[in-house]
Amino acid sequence: TTQDLIYGCDIARFGSDRTVICKRRGNVVVELRHWSGEDLMGTVGRIVHEAQIDKPAVIAVDSIGLGGGVADRLRELGYNVVDVNVSESNSMNQQASRLRDELWLAAKDWLETRAVRLPKDDELRAELIGPTYSFTSNGKIKVESKSELKKRGMRSPDLADALCLTFSGQAAMVGGRALKWVPGKPLQRRVSIC
Predict the structure, then answer these.
(1) pLDDT at 180
(2) Between β-strands 28-35 and 19-25, what pairing exists: parallel, antiparallel or unpaired?
(3) How many angstroms separate the CA atoms of 137 and 141, rounded?
(4) Is 38 exposed, middle or buried (0-12, 13-18, 19+ CB in 10 A)?
């Protein structure tokens, strides 16, 4: 059987950060597309252009701030979009502090299988190994934030974040205990922060 193509979209607007589409099919990152200096409707247009060619099963968009509008417009155009709010509490991985940390841990586990294929992209590799992690006072894992990375002189890990977003559907199904995700609807956790 052919595995579905999933897009992970990390959205930026102007500035030095990049908007990234990570295209993953099963254990293969097929392609990374990125750009900067584009307004949000231009970004939607670029994603639509790629999606018309690739026909992804799911477009996972980081919906914090700017990404929310992009997700809404893509949904309005008929694409199967899942909004991923990475600042939400973790889904099922109780080791993770927030959903962002859970997605990074899912990507780490995926990479550790060594049965994966990444593009020959030194920036992606550097971004995947760049962030450090720490523990919260309640023993949960916290991956270094974008602002903390920038303080250390590193750029925002836009490529790696887009890859992590491709695991948003799987993160909700860890252990098979999560509610079923309805295509085209925001990913809702209903998990309390404690």
Answers:
(1) 42
(2) antiparallel
(3) 10
(4) middle
Ranges in the chain, pLDDT < 50: 1, 171-181, 188-194
pLDDT at 186: 52
Name residue 103's amino acid.
L
CA distance 190 to 178: 10
Neighbouring C-alpha atoms within 13 Å toward the C-beta of 187: 32
Burial class (CB in 10 A: 0-12, 13-18, 19+), 84: buried
Do residues 99 and 90 touch, judged by C-beta distance below 8 A? Answer: yes
Comparing CA positions, the residue from 2, 43, 25, 41 lying closest to residue 158 is: 43
What angle, rounded to 10 degrees, do the helices at 66-76 and 40-54 form? 50
This model's pTM is above 0.70: yes
Paired with 29 in beta bridges are 24
pLDDT value of position 20:
96
